[in-house]
Amino acid sequence: MKNPDCIFCNIVEDKILLKNKRAFVINDKFPDSKGHLLVIPFNHEEDYFNLAKEDQLAILEMLDEAKKLTDKEHKPSGYNVKINIGTSAGQIIMHSHVHLIPRY
After folding, report:
1. 54-69 in b/e burial notation, b at 16+ Cβ within 10 A?
2. Run of H or E including 103
3. Angle 21-103-28 (CA atoms, 0-180°, nearest 5)?
4. Whole-prediction pTM value?
């Protein structure tokens, strides 16, 4: 299901770098480092822990593919994988997403 007011639910197709049936990958609009990506489920859910298991698995599959893409394009020496859940944890867009942040 989608939220008509959510930026991630209304993502423009040409912004999507990778996708499977349940999740997709885009560049972070305000990257912490070169190659910072977001992995986002198509289904609108604010809290990662409330996602269907199929969505969580799809996110993990896309996270692996996003890492391969980033390894090839940017060759970082390390990564942070981050999920902010709730405003007190720093979540700004209230649609679950995972940050893949390359480190150099």
Report:
1. ebbebbebbbebbbeb
2. strand 98-103
3. 45
4. 0.96
